[in-house]
Write a structure and sequence with these properties.
Elements: H1 3-15, H2 21-34, H3 42-49
Amino acid sequence: MTPEEEFRAQIVLLLHGDITPDECLGEIMLIAENYGAVFEFEEDKEEEQA
């Protein structure tokens, strides 16, 4: 299954109400990280600056 197919599968589960938005986002982030994506969040940047 390609990353795009995996993303689509997660969105379908979300739309059918089988998973929550938070679970969907978590799964999509895991899929993307498996393919080399790097995520930076504002809260992470704030911690680094402190």
